[in-house]
Design a protein that fits this description.
The protein is mainly alpha-helical. It has one domain. It has 15 helices and no strands. The protein has helices spanning 2-36, 42-50, 54-81, 88-104, 110-122, 126-157, 162-168, 173-198, 203-213, 218-235, 238-265, 272-289, 301-313, 318-347, 351-363. The longest helix is centred in the N-terminal third of the chain and has 35 residues, at 2-36. The chain is globular. The two termini are 20 Å apart. The relative contact order is 0.18.
């Protein structure tokens, strides 16, 4: 009993440490924003927001709302390949609850919340839940990278190259380079995993040898084997890769479309072609910046990257660009929080308790 209590104490301390890091990171990001945007006229930003076209903003909200059932369906495609087929309605609620937890709880507890919901409400084992989340994240990053690449190609054809972009976007250079490094690493790990699990290499044999030598590692090795097996099922199924990849592109196209409508609502003055390209690239880079676990819900990082890209590539002023970034992110977070509140009520879960239970299960793997 005492040893069990010690394990729980250690996990609780780890969770508290992660939360402290998230809080410190958030404060650091906001301090950086104050310095970076000290020359921006806040009154002008607020005035620009106040002049936004309400009909276009309503269309943006509707478009982003439509993306959520697609997120649930895409996640269902991931889980189905691992032998856990579940309905789109339930999975949409699960995704809503996890994304809301990422906004309101420190340390990005959303993954633990979703794994808990799947386990508590549908009996999905924790290793399968966390493996499906890892697969989903790799596809998200791949879709964002593809869309960002398309936007960059269009801008390059129009005479604005990526090197020029990085040179001009001084305000977010560090965040963008770091986010790009994190994303490249994640994609490299994901692609390496795909190569390994599609090959004849079988980590199970190594796991068995490890357990024979170190019997105390039996449980974590078994969990790791289950985790790897779930990823392998997806990697070895070309049809699943195509379906999940297509679903990911649709989800992020709606996310990009939301930002484009926001830019249009603020009367950016851009022609349709540049509006589509710049909006796509700004959302892509903004979300890559959010990969860095430096602030709560990526707030501040997204706005800084989005604003820097728009200012660097267009004649739009910093006030209008920042207004677009703030409205776009706030609109998306608002839809997430509203949907998440309903999801949490319907599922009957406590986000804090779910995060603690899920985190403990993750630490026990």
């Amino acid at each position: 009993m005492l040893r069990s209590g010690g394990r729980w104490t250690g996990r609780l301390r780890a969770l508290v440490t992660r939360r402290r890091l998230a809080v410190v990171g958030t404060l650091a990001v906001f301090a950086g924003l104050v310095v970076g945007f000290r020359d921006v006229d806040i009154a002008s930003v607020l005035a620009t927001i106040g002049r936004a076209d309400p009909w276009l903003l309503a269309a943006a909200i509707a478009l982003y709302t439509i993306s959520w059932p697609l997120r649930g369906r895409r996640y269902g495609d991931v889980l189905s390949t691992t032998g856990h087929p579940l309905g789109t309605r339930f999975l949409t609620l699960a995704v809503f609850s996890s994304q809301t937890a990422n906004l309101v709880l420190p340390a990005r507890a959303g993954d633990a919340v979703r794994a808990y919901v799947l386990n508590a409400r549908r009996g999905v084992p924790y290793p399968a839940g966390f493996a499906s989340l890892a697969v989903e994240r790799v596809f998200d990053l791949a879709a964002i990278a593809v869309l960002g690449g398309l936007g960059t190609l269009w801008l390059t054809a129009a005479g604005v190259g990526p090197l020029e972009l990085v040179a001009e976007a001084d305000g977010a250079r560090t965040a963008l380079v770091a986010a790009g490094g994190v994303t490249a690493t994640t994609l490299a790990v994901g692609l390496s995993t795909l190569v390994v699990v599609r090959s004849r290499f079988r980590p199970g044999a190594i796991g068995a040898a490890v357990v024979d030598r170190f019997p105390r590692l039996r449980n974590p090795v078994a969990a790791l084997a289950s985790f790897t097996g779930d990823i392998a099922v997806v990697a070895r199924n070309p049809g699943a890769l195509a379906v999940i990849g297509t679903g990911s592109l649709l989800v992020w196209l709606l996310d990009v479309g939301t930002a484009i409508l926001v830019l249009a609502a603020l009367d950016s003055g851009l022609a349709l072609g540049p509006l589509l390209a710049v909006g796509t690239l700004a959302v892509s880079v903004g979300n890559l910046a959010k990969v860095l676990p430096l602030s709560q819900g990526g707030i501040g990082l997204y706005e800084a990257a989005f604003t820097a890209l728009v200012v660097a590539l267009t004649p739009i002023g910093a006030s209008t660009a920042l207004a677009a970034a703030v409205v776009d992110h706030a609109l998306k977070n608002g839809v997430t929080l509203a949907g998440g509140a309903g999801a949490i009520a319907l599922l009957g879960v406590s986000p804090t308790e779910a995060a603690q239970q899920g985190t403990a299960a993750e630490a026990a793997k």
